[in-house]
Amino acid sequence: MAYYFSTVIEGKTFEETIALTTAALKQEGFGIITSINMQAAMQEKLGKEILPYTILGACNPGFAYEALQ
Q1: Fewer CB in a 10 Å sphere around the end CB: N or C, the chain?
Q2: Cα separation of 36 and 54, whole Å?
């Protein structure tokens, strides 16, 4: 069972892809409440190099409020 969504975006840099994803989420009413740079974390914590990898935590405040009721 997959707990994530993924896709391949051709012809864009990693940073451009993060920006496009953030913009697409915003259009749907979501904001980014967390952004974890796993590449930097692995380097800092373990001294290990990995490919660029970012975890985006997205939230739609209206949906979140409704779910908490």
Answers
A1: N
A2: 5
- Selection from 29, 63, 9 nearest residue 19 by Cα: 9
pTM over 0.85: no
C-alpha dihedral (13, 41, 22, 52), degrees to nearest 10: 20
Neighbours of 17 (CB within 10 A): 16
Is residue 39 classed as helix, strand or coil in its secondary structure?
helix
Cα 16 → chain centroid: 12
